[in-house]
Amino acid sequence: MKLSNLLLTISLTLVFNSLAASIASASSLQPANLQQTTDLVKANNKFVTLLGTQIDVGQPAPNFKVVNENFVAVKLADFSGKNVLISVVPSLDTGVCSLQTKRFNEEVINLSQDVVMLTISNDLPFAQKRFCKTENIDKMQVLSDSVWRDFGSNYGLLIKDMGLLTRAIFIIDSSGKVAYKEIVANISKHPNYELALSTLSALSATLITDKDSSSKKTEK
Q1: 156: left (phi over 0), alpha (psi -120 to 50) or beta
Q2: How far apart are alpha carbons 159 and 52 in whole angstroms?
Q3: Predicted structure pTM score
Q4: DSSP state of 160
Q5: Are 94 and 126 in contact (CB under 8 A)?
Q6: Where are the domains of the chain?
Q7: Neighbours of 161 (CB within 10 A)
Q8: Is 34-219 CATH 3.40.30.10?
């Protein structure tokens, strides 16, 4: 084996071992007293248990920390002052999740530049990067909650004993409050795209109007 190939193999082995250790550590550190919700979501016609705190519309959106395809931490606070749509899927490698992600990626061009769209799943960043390249997902950020489970725990979306996030849509307005929430009742079904997008468009229009008003007051 050539020296360069040997070094590459060693490097990749170290990366995967580090990743496995991080995920195992994160799983073992999950608090045993996470809130459990048992009557919101069904899979195969049976209710699943969701772990974490349920968040209501009108409440301040909890901050969270996830990672991008390069394992760089990304936080909700990074998008302060913007309207943020968060599309949550169990796994990008399944049909409905793939279609959901592609639908929102296509819709970004129809929205204001003050809008940020995120997809979050517990897929590993490697898998997310491969999916985005194959499906040309290049207009929204696809992020992973696989390392710390921080997003799933803070928003009550982590499926007990599965390690996946349940399907959901959240919209955080420019003031940092939850303006829209849909936890899809059956994990195999699509979310209400039209209602989420119309809510986001209305918030974006309001933000633009507020900025124009402030600008005019400043000019006087």
Answers
A1: left
A2: 9
A3: 0.82
A4: T
A5: no
A6: 1-30, 34-219
A7: 8
A8: yes
Side-chain-side CA neighbours of 18 within 13 Å: the count stands at 7
Dihedral Cα 162, 106, 202, 143, nearest 10 deg: 40
CA torsion through residues 73, 74, 76, 77, sign = positive
Q: What is the pLDDT along the chain (220 residues), one digit of tens a residue?
A: 555 544 444 444 444 444 444 444 444 445 568 999 999 999 999 999 999 999 999 999 999 999 999 999 999 999 999 999 999 999 999 999 999 999 999 999 999 888 999 999 999 999 999 999 999 999 999 999 999 999 999 999 999 999 999 999 999 999 999 999 999 999 999 999 999 999 999 998 876 555 555 544 555 5
Catalytic machinery residues: 97
Tokens of 149: 């489970």
Angle ∠(39,44,47) on CA atoms, nearest 5: 15
